[in-house]
Amino acid sequence: MDASSKGEGEVPKKARKNAGLILLPLGSSPRLPAQGLHAFPTILNILVLLWAICEGSTTWFGIVTVFLMSYVYTDYWMWLLHCYLDRVENLSSKVPPLLKAATSFQKHHDFPKTVLEDNHVGSIYEMGVLGAMFCIVSAPWTSPLVKVFCVSVTLFGSLAAANHFFCHAATHKHQIPLFYTVCHRYGLLPPPRHHKIHHTAPFEKFWNFLSGFYFIYEPIYRATGESYYLLHTLFYATNPLAVQLWVLMAVNCR
């Protein structure tokens, strides 16, 4: 029996309080903490979006295109983040935040049910805050579409984190919101049975949270010999802040 199948149907013994007021609700299950993005990152991202709207000078086609691009990017980034933090090499990292995150991710394999103890969307709090703040600081030198991209990444990142939570909730026999049930049924989000395979030792496949594009990423990863150094490079070169920086440099250094 794998770790994820232990104690199905049980309510977490000690549910921690959410780390703040939720302004962007993303669903809830009976007897489990509500899921959603907290006030501060939500407000910052609303400000970024309002700034983009006030600037205008773009088209609906451009907005929809960037929205879809941000979906694909967020799916890639969440997969990469999960895969990278699952590498045992990071347990000896000299970078404290990386060491803490890797330890938390890998401990989750031993105690998967602990994800149900709090607002899991809060795990992307820093991404939402730092991304929006960088976007605000660089706003005079970026286009409205860059701001839409920034907000969309936070939105899809929140959805991915919420789906992770509800996959575990469903596995442990909790009722989950209809939205996630429908998305699981029709392949719009990775379903619980898919994520449960990831929680079966040796935990080396299905790192995706948002979509099924893992079938592209994972064969490439295998083809590189599961290179840690490639993951390490991509982690620092293609994270959300780095992408904003590359775009800022490309636009203003022409």
Write the layout of secondary structure elements.
Elements: E1 22-25, E2 36-38, H1 39-55, H2 60-85, H3 96-110, H4 125-137, H5 144-171, H6 178-185, H7 192-198, H8 214-223, H9 228-237, H10 240-252
Antiparallel strand pairs: 1-2
Helix pairs in contact: 1-4, 1-5, 2-5, 2-9, 4-5, 5-7
Description:
By secondary structure, the chain is mostly helical. The chain has one domain. 58% of the residues lie in helices and 3% in strands. It is built from ten helices and two strands. A two-stranded antiparallel ribbon has the order 1-2. Helix 1 runs parallel beside helix 4 and helix 2 runs antiparallel to helix 9. The N terminus is likely disordered.
Quickly describe the structure.
The protein has helices at residues 39-55, 60-85, 96-110, 125-137, 144-171, 178-185, 192-198, 214-223, 228-237, 240-252, and strands at 22-25, 36-38. By secondary structure, the protein is mainly alpha-helical.
Give the tags.
254 residues, two-stranded antiparallel ribbon, 3% strand, disordered N terminus
Mean pLDDT: 87
Shape: globular
Give the % helix: 55-70%
Number of domains: 1
Order of adjacent strands in the largest pleated sheet: 1-2
Amino- and carboxy-terminal Cα gap: 58 Å
Rg is 18 Å
Which structural class best describes the helix and strand composition? mainly alpha
Query: What's the helix-strand series?
Result: EEHHHHHHHHHH
**How many helix segments?**
10
Give start-end ranges of low-pLDDT stretches. 1-19
Number of strands: 2
